[in-house]
Design brief:
The chain is an alpha/beta fold and 267 residues long. The protein has one domain: 3-Layer(aba) Sandwich (Rossmann fold). Helices cover 43% and strands 19% of the residues. The chain contains eleven helices and eight strands. An eight-stranded mixed β-sheet has the order 1-2-4-3-5-6-7-8, with helices on both faces. The mean pLDDT is 95.
Length: 267
Amino acid sequence: MGQAELHTIAGPRGPVAYERTGSGPALLLLAGLGSRARLWGELPRVLADRFTVLAPDNRGVGGSRDGEVFTLTGAADDAALVLADAGLGAAGVIGVSMGGLLACEFALRHPEAVQRLVVASCAARLTPSHRRVMRFFEIAFTRLEPVEAAEAFMAFAFGSAFADRYPGFVDQAAKLWTLDPEDRPGALQQLAALRAGWDMRGELKAIACPALVLAGEHDPLVAAAATRELAAAIPEARFREVPGAAHSVLAEGGAALLAEIVEFLST
């Protein structure tokens, strides 16, 4: 499907950059903490024969640097701008980790824009264990060099069986997740917004579209039970726990999980 097209929107909260790949129905990819569109690696290209894949840089990093301070609601509205700019109508949405929160917020604030929702590795609320995870990221972002922080994160991102079987993939993931130095302030703003806390349990019942919620059985960052709680709060949600997986369930679930996701989005 060729190279991704790069777009930048002059939004009311600041610039919003995104990559567009492929053709077909719209599919919006919302990534996690500190992430640019590049975090998705080859996934947009893989999906490009079925969907028009839209992958934004989160507020504060990459081409979406500057502008207003990051908030979950503001980032959800940024996602709506991307979809409107692409001119494709309602979309399927995949959100992972912090991107899962953004996906839920997007579905709540812009229900007409979301046809189907896939949420992975995130929780409906901030718990004491999550606060400790946030502290880990604060230390990593402020005391380690970006390459070191990414290497440290890989210990939690993938289950041991996957990491042993695909060490080259994990090395590549570390490179994709490594912050550019100029993105560190924006990543810390995102982290501050998460550390301030959230609790979406009461709101999630308003999500009316079909949802597929994914958790890693051994996710050390967001426990599967926390993701199950999120799924239980969404009326039309189906919960799926990926055996042996840690935080990166889309990769760890392999081709079978990807096929399940594509079928769900295409129904």
